[in-house]
């Protein structure tokens, strides 16, 4: 029967292997095809994304350069407007505009002051500012000009005479006879508010535009126009049709955003800004074909590299898929064995595959942990059973013992021997606790401390009050569950191995602190201490042996408690021992408060 079963399993294994090889070829092809498609799609998306990013970068560059140009226009206009404040703030110039004196020396003094003020403030060095004229209401005229020809004076006088109304803010006028711009502003008396005169600043349009366009690309245009769409600057003798086309394309677009327009049979990206100081609009126009040409020039270098990457990825994907299928088959075979309950077979042979080696290690570690958990649970159950058996073997009928102790208490009270009565009561309480919790693994902290109190009382009676006990316990932790008699075990160890051999009085300290995640329990004494700190092996069975002794003492109680803490709470809860012989010895362990099963429920 077994032979037939083995043959059947062998046939089933061979069929599975052949089917696996067939699937391996299909899998390799699918992996190669999938990687090729993913690479091609990724390359296409990369090129598309690159095109968008390059376009955005060039648009951002244009936006920055356009904003810089428009900002430069605003700065220049602010510089022109500052001439008004410079002239009015000069007392000599201001007083001369108010004065009715027409002496030549007065004219000369004012014009020298004008020259001094403008040069001092670096205004006159602007090459596009050609002249500054001041016409007063009293008929006087002061001027400063880089061109002292009669034509310049005539042009400024003509502009002054053409003014139909006062201009409290800076206003610009153009001339069809030349390429000058005239910035005009009325001058007011600071005390009365009456008009004192008019200031006219002449700007050479060509020099100004050349200065503005010196840092931008060839083919770009800059237009300045007012609300009536009267062209102020930026286009050489525009025709009426061209002005109408530009007006229709731009509209009233003053919100600092890109706009696509068609002008003079060419597509442009435009950026417009309102210059509030002069109430005009500045527009920068960039040809779209110039922008696309720059993008394609950069993008063309990416295409050959992208194609090479695609071909390389396809070739590599073929070899990688072949390498990938083999370890997968090994993993499937081993995992199937594990699924059948065979935990003894570990996965091996995949060390040269980095990722599969990690998976192999993880599964093998999982198998080790399963064995370890199984052994720990079995050991804990054996310990509990052994403890119960020993308790049953050693215990007498508790009712009989309680009755005897009650009789002793009554006898002691009848003879007025209160000490014996209290000692009998303490023994009864200890017996009661050991009887009630003999099958439990945990006990409320409050009950453990109640039991410890009577234990310490009996020890103090034994040592005739030579032992001082100090307890420091945080409030609110009375109902936390701890391992049964864990504190008593440490106290017993302190008495037997620390305080009892000490020739003088001693002190025993019990400290229980609550932190965010742990309950910390410390028992300290000033007895003889440990010459060598005992080491407890978690792998060895819990029994007394010579190898575990320290100075010929096995410390079985500490070892059993340490093992119990490890099985219940893990490595972090093991005993921590610190000892300075004849000065101080501390034994500490921690119980995790986050473990709700152990701290809120009653285990038995």
Automatic annotation (TrEMBL):
GO molecular-function terms, A-Z? phosphorelay sensor kinase activity
Determine if Phosphoprotein is one of this entry's keywords.
yes
Record keywords, A-Z: Kinase, Membrane, Phosphoprotein, Transferase, Transmembrane, Transmembrane helix
Cellular location(s) = Membrane
- Sorted alphabetically, which PROSITE patterns does this protein's record hold? HAMP (PS50885)
Q: Which GO cellular component terms are attached?
A: membrane
Domain (HAMP) spans 322-375
**TM spans (from-to):** 302-325
Q: PANTHER family, alphabetically?
A: SENSOR HISTIDINE KINASE YPDA
Name of this chain's protein: HAMP domain-containing protein
Q: What organism is recorded for this protein?
A: Roseburia inulinivorans
